[in-house]
Write a structure and sequence with these properties.
The protein is of the alpha+beta class and about 725 residues long. It has 3 domains: about 280 residues, Beta-galactosidase, Chain A, domain 5, CATH 2.70.98; about 300 residues, Aldolase class I (TIM Barrel); about 110 residues, Immunoglobulin-like (Sandwich), CATH 2.60.40. The protein contains 12 helices and 37 strands. Strands 5, 6, 7, 8, 10, 11, 13, 14, 18 and 19 form a 10-stranded antiparallel beta sheet that branches. An 8-stranded parallel beta barrel has the order 20-21-22-25-28-29-30-31, surrounded by 5 helices. Strands 4, 9, 12, 15, 16 and 17 form a 6-stranded antiparallel beta sheet that branches. A hairpin with a 3-residue loop joins strand 1 and strand 2. Helix 3 packs parallel to helix 4, helix 6 packs parallel to helix 7 and helix 8 packs parallel to helix 9. It is globular. The structure holds alpha-D-galactopyranose (GLA). Alpha-D-galactopyranose binds next to loops.
Length: about 725
Amino acid sequence: MSKPVLEPDTAADFIVLHGRDCTAVLERADPGPPLWRYWGPRLPDGALPEAALESTRPLPSFSLDAEQPLSLFPLFGVGGFTAPALAAHRAGHDFAQAFTACEIVWTVPGQALVCRLTDAVAGLEVEVRMEMHADASTLTLGATLIHTGEGVLDVGWLAAAVIPLPPQSTEVRTVTGRHNAEFVPTCDLLGRNGWSRENRRGLTSHDRFPGAVVTTAGAGPHTGTTYGAQLAWSGNAVQRIEWIDDGRWQWQLGEGLAPGEIRLARGERLVSPEVLATCSAHGLDGVAQNFHAAVRARSDWPGGTMAPRKVHLNTWEGFYFRHRLDELKALADAAAEVGVERFVLDDGWFHGRDDDTSSLGDWWPDAAKYPDGLAPLVHHVTGLGMDFGLWVEPEMINPDSDLYRAHPDWALHLDGRPRITARNQLVLDLGREEVRAYLLDRIGPLLDALPIAYLKWDHNRDLTTAGHQGRAAYHTQVRGAWALMDAFRNRWPGVEIEACAGGGGRIDAGIATRTHRFWTSDCIDAVSRMGMQPGYLQFMPPERMGSHVGTAPAHSTGRSQSLDFRAAVAMTGHLGVEFDLRRLPQADRTRLAAWIAFYKRHRDHLHGGRVWRGEAGDGLVWQAHGAADGALLLFVYRLTPATQKYAPPVRLPMLAEAGPLRVRRLRPEGLSPERTGGAPWFDRLEGDGVAVSGAWLAASGLPVPAMTAESCVIYSLSKDLT
Ligand code: GLA
């Protein structure tokens, strides 16, 4: 394909989208897709390339006479050598593609567009959508493939986004982990052989979060040009970063498709998941803040806006499958007394469910545990002024269940292959309309009859033999699960949903639009959570981060921490309590109530602004919530005992421009000050506090009192200097 030479300097040849912090510039290359010219920190208005890309690139030896630079949607086989955004064929034919027409339609001028690309020879069309969210500084990208030819188009890959990364990109960071140990950070050097990551577990997964952050030379936690992208998808996912001949990299993200999974008849289309892509000059924190803003912008809260995140009591670790009405009522009483606002009845409430070997699918109250149904407990809870929440795992089925005995074919399976169980359960085929209808009909009456305000929606296994009539059904499974969630949301719009999958196995920006909280991990050991929270917060906002005060020793690790530390760690997310409160000594109950009151006083601040995370060194880490002008809540945690005589001050780089600030020590009411090492300055932080220059805090740092391991001090920083 020969590329027409463009007039080099007419603005109409360029597509420009500006966010607050970033700019995207593409060059029109009709009939081919627009070429990526720039994606990076915000350029001044009107800053455009002086010349068309082609006119600036001398042709290297051993090259095509018309080389194809990186475009919004590269193709294979007709001159394209970079990883293509599409892999498709029609019974072995039309494996090579090139666009014959390109039309750009601005849906919101300067902000959102659709790029319509046609390949008249291969018989297909692609629509690439781009939208810049100016405040979030995030581009939302997505692609739709439409088959316009004869026969069947077999699709192996459709990139949801193709994002350029500059030559100075150095490292890729993301998170991995497992059940009970989510959000373990990884960091890989970017080299000429690129980077890739594939999730084949059928749901978002504990180990292959579908997103990453790429830093450039010199970038770090708070400064430097840093890129981020995440796929809004709750299933199989592929990410690929490929070095290209001009020294840049291209980053593709998309749904991972099983062989033969997508076969489009004429007129059929495949819609990719969306990608959130961002860039910031403020390092990892800048990217995290943009992601938080983008996920907030996609959120769909009952009533339109987020209500203060209510304090939960979850029954799981305190009771597991042992449900006794009198005990649960007493637990609810104890919860209400300490200030809990939502009581969530976890697994164990439904027909025959005494352990994890049976009953998933039989969604009606167990007659032995709840002879009068759930009403007595629900009304007891709501009578105490709390919301009632209920655990469900709709997508699952135990072979030992009435549902399975009636409909064994409803489980995802492949004939001739074993039905591989995990936690004794199989997965229902959510692509089937009648399966979704059954779940609505079975769970729905409970929501109709009782004031249930909340569902904790679980998914406790990976997918295997995910087949429907012999064909791969991963894609339809995700679409079906989302459709079921949407159906619940439509019918009961006031009900919030928590996304859980053995803790954090389904945390992604796709499910975020239909749910309101993530259960971050089944591990609620506070030290472990300190390891997970920075990774979680890199991609998702704090108000969705389910974080509970658990018991000591923690069930998942056997480690113990003080109640104060457990509470201080849980404080910054969506707070909950998860143990048998009835057994807590009165003095500790009073302490816990003080922490809960503290959370309620500060939650708007914790959940409404920006988040910064940092390490001061020698076992000290910090997290600040608020605004860069200085209205901040600062949590300083000591994780390990000090090895230095004097603790390193906590430097707060985001305050460089903040001017003078008043720093005050905060603590829950009634809790007495801890030993501060005897230095008088720390006493002055009590009460009215001390005025300190923001520039000083940024450059030199805030002194830290003597702290024991696994403890926290909290400060407020404010503009109020009086
Ligand atoms: C999963 C969840 C837990 C709990 C159990 C119940 O493991 O992550 O919080 O709900 O299921 O079986």
